[in-house]
Design brief:
By secondary structure, the protein is an alpha/beta fold. 38% of the residues lie in helices and 21% in strands. The chain has two domains: 182 residues, 2-Layer Sandwich (Nucleotidyltransferase, domain 5); 184 residues, ATPase, nucleotide binding domain (Nucleotidyltransferase, domain 5), CATH 3.30.420.
Amino acid sequence: MININYGKNIYIGIMSGTSADGIDVAAVEIDGDIVHPNCKLLAFNNVPYTTEVRRRIFDLFDTKSATIDKIGEMNFLLGRLYGEAANLLIDDGQIDRNRIAAIGSHGQTVYHSPEGDVPCTVQIGEGSVISRLTGCLCVSDFRVADIAAGGNGAPLVPFTEYALFADDKNGLILQNIGGISNSTILPKNCRPEEVFAFDNGPGNMLIDALATRYYGLEMDIGGKIAAKGKVNQKLLDTLLLEPYYKKLPPKTTGRELFGEAYAEKIISISDGISKEDVLATVTMLTARVIADSYRDFVLPKNQISELIVGGGGSYNETLMRFLENEMSAYGVSVFTQEQKGQNSDAKEAVAFALLAYYTLKGLPNNLQSATGAKYPAVMGKISF
């Protein structure tokens, strides 16, 4: 039990990403300066989805099968699972409930279309259910306020990365490799308006999809299958023709582009190429797209010394080796969050705890340079 007598300064962050493999939950103590607050990770846990729940989530990624009854039911089911995961962390971590200010929950994205005739985004995991189960305020549904302000509703984590990592001596890239890969660029001694961020393209999403199609696995653990193959340059060159990669930031993407249909397309054009070589090539694709985006969108104005990788991709040794080789051409050293004393798994859950902190203070928590929003926005809906 934590015996501290002052007010409520613990926030619980909940994240379920595009890979839809489970629920990340973090308890974070937040205090200090409002621009660069102190965040101390008190406890972290990951609760995997069951095979059945994961299948039902993936059904919602297909607009043909994502009927309103299924979305509504999963909205409440995920709210329950998120609330249960939060309770488990609070109890096992001996977190004092009297000190919990709020829970910040990203929810599960099932549809994201910020550039349509009517821009929209859908995250499910009902905040009212989370609040009822935990007895805590819940801040959820963050992205919609940024889209209402003319933004892409993503990426959101760069706001917290600026708050936590901005350095007056070194230029950094905070690189997340989840289902999608995204970069936050923190120039040396930067102001908030100088930070920029964007989704590079696929992270683990296509690697996971091919591992499932070829081997019946959820992922290529550690990149071991890809390590047995060789990069097919012709296939890589073909994949690099995807127009998204040349689109100027701010930009965001997701399963709508790089989902199952895209994986099927890769399989269809890979006739005569071994499965191991296809996986090696798609793993290289993730690394190359990150490096190319640094070349195209960061240089020459911003000199970066370090790229710090978080997310599940940081555990893929083959991907990390490819990325280190690609970035070495630009004189950029590559590190994992763990090598910097951080926690790769907890990173995004911590981010949504911090976003909830700003919501409760009534302060804008979108980074306009990252999302493209025309106005600052206080994101998040509060459930009591």
